[in-house]
TrEMBL record, chain A:
PANTHER family: HIGH-AFFINITY BRANCHED-CHAIN AMINO ACID TRANSPORT ATP-BINDING PROTEIN LIVF. Coiled coil: none annotated. It comes from Nocardiopsis endophytica. InterPro entries: AAA+_ATPase (IPR003593), ABC_transporter-like_ATP-bd (IPR003439), ABC_transporter-like_CS (IPR017871), BCAA_Transport_ATP-bd_LivF (IPR052156), P-loop_NTPase (IPR027417). Belongs to the ABC transporter superfamily. Keywords: Amino-acid transport, ATP-binding, Nucleotide-binding, Transport. This is ABC transporter ATP-binding protein. Residues 7-240 form the ABC transporter domain. The keyword Cytoplasm does not apply. The keyword RNA-binding does not apply.
From TrEMBL, chain B:
It is found in: Cell membrane. CDD domains: TM_PBP1_LivH_like. Keywords: Amino-acid transport, Cell membrane, Membrane, Transmembrane, Transmembrane helix, Transport. The lineage of its organism: Bacteria, Bacillati, Actinomycetota, Actinomycetes, Streptosporangiales. The keyword Transcription regulation does not apply. This is Branched-chain amino acid ABC transporter permease.
Length: 240, 283
């Protein structure tokens, strides 16, 4: 292997009190990949993202970002190293305007010019946000809110983006647009995307590879096409 | 008419003090959802330190600067050492902690400087109706309010403060160092509280000098809405003017009672404050 994986976890284990929510998860995502993490409700998908992004310190195991051990680093520091976590529902601040949300995302960048350029790029990518820049973020539709959440993450200049259920509550058409956008971003900028989804069909169509979690442990992994073609996996874990 | 004008001007000058202390309460409540009962004690310690620095250097303004710095340090230190460890405790815990801190600091001030009144200087000439000292009080508080508005509205630091206060976890995911930002909000608020102390202290400073001022400031903060800095300033000025009328037309013995009536009336009729918007924030 020439390059270090963009994101790698080794034996990542997380406890909530006495409950083991994540059990020794090994996962590797190549730079520029679109990687899905699938599983039923409560399988540990969100826990995995929270542990990887520094929101919830793991009990044991390691997190490596481009080969660098970042285990235990808090989320706000990982943002500065290019790891952005978009939580379920987007984590949009509805009390702020659209543009304030985006500006907030860009504050980790140095220099006024770099921030302004990033803002322009995000507006080019999401035209509806430019139209509503001075409006309160609470006035956005679900799809626009998801755009704002992704746009805010892009403002920081990420190398790896973790997305938690971006399709939740969105119409299939909007979901498809968001998936296309992620693929497009990946191929244009080399961004690495880790996508957590309950909606396995949508995610596997967009992703190159996937991990399937079951009760906190890895139940299956491989290229998306293989997982989609494996009747055992389809029936047991993907509900297809 | 002359009497009315005098009472109004005096009311605005003392209202500026209530506004500053109310502002410090509201800024801290906004940032961390804690009503900081130790705020008058921060102002007290700051004023006594100013007294000591002025006595040592002979300069009023050296003491003034020392007071603001001491207020800021007390605020940041309290957030870091007392409030942050209680982040996941019941909402009552930080209230009890700040009440305890109030008593400790008030007692400590009495031990260090004694309970006898100390003669405390005015910043400027205090003679005449609406004296330069009165004008200084009103102008400095209005200036602070304007500067705060600009800070919150137009600067990256203000954006970080708002984000950290509204949704700490989402702010962290955008790279905001929430702990440092909240300590900064406490520091800023407590420096403003120290300003209130410097304005309220003359002519005499005692360990209980700010007790009444604090009651009026709480009335102002509640009247303006605990989450609204501009409500706090408006509430402070309104309470100051109202109490001045009560003192002038009815009698000074009813001043404190009038403040409590304001508090009760607002809480009964519009518990979120006179300037609250209809929509409640989801927590």
């Amino acid at each position: 292997m020439a390059a270090d994986p963009a994101l790698r976890t080794e034996g990542l284990t997380v406890h909530y009190g006495a409950v083991r929510a994540l059990d020794a998860v090994d996962l590797e995502v190549a730079p520029g990949a679109l990687h899905a993490v699938l599983g039923a409700n409560g399988a540990g998908k969100t826990t995995f993202l929270r542990a990887a992004s520094g929101l919830h310190p793991p009990r044991s195991g390691r997190v490596l970002l481009f080969g660098e051990d970042v285990t235990g680093a808090p989320a706000e520091e990982l943002v500065r190293r290019g790891l952005l976590h978009v939580p379920e529902g987007g984590g949009v601040l509805t009390e702020l305007t659209v543009e304030e949300n985006l500006r907030l995302g860009g504050l980790v960048r140095r220099g006024r010019a770099a921030r302004a350029a990033a803002l322009g790029e995000v507006y080019d990518l999401f035209a509806p946000l430019r139209e509503r820049r001075t409006r309160s973020a609470s006035s956005l539709s679900g799809g626009e809110r998801q755009m704002l959440a992704i746009g805010r993450a892009l403002m920081a200049g990420p190398r790896v983006v973790l997305l938690d259920e971006p399709s939740l509550g969105l119409a299939p058409l909007i979901t498809r647009r968001i998936m296309h956008l992620l693929q497009d971003l990946r191929s244009r900028t080399g961004l690495t995307v880790v996508l957590v989804e309950q909606n396995a069909r949508t995610a596997l169509r967009a992703a190159d590879r996937a991990h399937v979690l079951d009760q906190g442990a890895v139940a299956a992994e491989g290229p998306s096409a293989d997982l989609l073609g494996d009747p055992r996996v389809r029936a047991a874990y993907l509900g297809l | 008419m002359q009497h009315f004008a005098d009472l109004t001007l005096n009311g605005l000058a003392s209202g500026a003090v209530y506004a500053a202390l109310a502002l410090s309460l509201v800024l801290i409540y906004q940032a961390t959802r804690v009503l900081n009962f130790a705020q008058p004690a921060f102002a007290l310690v700051s004023a006594y330190l100013a007294y000591a620095v002025t006595a040592a250097t002979g300069s009023y303004w050296a003491g003034f600067a020392a007071a603001l710095a001491a207020g800021g340090l007390l605020g940041a230190g309290t957030e870091r050492l007392l409030i942050r460890p209680l982040r996941n405790a019941s909402p009552l815990s930080p209230i009890i902690a700040t009440l305890g801190l109030l008593m400790v600091l008030q007692g400590a001030v009495g031990m260090v400087w004694g309970n006898e009144p100390l003669s405390f200087a005015y910043p400027l000439d205090y003679r005449g109706r609406f004296s330069p000292a009165d004008a200084f009080a009103l102008a400095s508080v209005l200036l602070v309010a304007l500067a705060l508005f600009a800070l919150y509205r137009f600067t990256p630091a203000g954006l970080r403060m708002r984000a950290a206060a509204i949704r700490p976890e989402a702010a962290r995911l955008s790279g905001v160092r929430v702990g440092a930002v909240l300590a900064g909000a406490w520091a800023l608020a407590s420096a403003i509280g120290a300003l209130a102390g410097m304005l309220a202290a003359p002519p005499f400073l005692t360990p209980n000098a700010f007790d009444a001022v604090f009651v009026f400031a709480i009335a102002a903060a509640v009247a303006g809405g605990l989450e609204n800095p501009f409500g706090a300033v408006a509430g402070g000025l309104a309470v100051g003017v109202l109490l001045s009328y009560v003192t002038g037309y009815v009698g000074p013995e009813l001043t404190a009672l009038a403040a409590l009536v304001v508090l009760l009336t607002v809480l009964a009729l519009k518990p979120d404050g006179l300037f609250s918007r209809a929509a409640a924030r989801k927590v």
